[in-house]
Specification:
mainly beta, about 90 residues, four-stranded antiparallel beta sheet, 1 helix
Length: about 90
Amino acid sequence: MATKFIMPKLGLTMEDGTVSTWLKKEGDVVKKGDPMCEITTEKLTNEIEATTDGVLLKIVVPEGETVDCQATIAIIGEEGEDISELLAE
């Protein structure tokens, strides 16, 4: 089952973050704990790890874009899985 990979809230005052670099690309197999991307906040840059095993099906937020905490930035699931409902959300 596909799951959302979200912009984490890395501190009490963090409201948004910028995806500075994707370390994985669409179609890559990922394991829980694998480095997925680097997120930049106003104070620092953090490497964010995969929260589940699967395939990186869709990068929703491209490099350089800023989004609110808890926003979906990618979708991880099984190869060939229909993710249209998650994308519609």
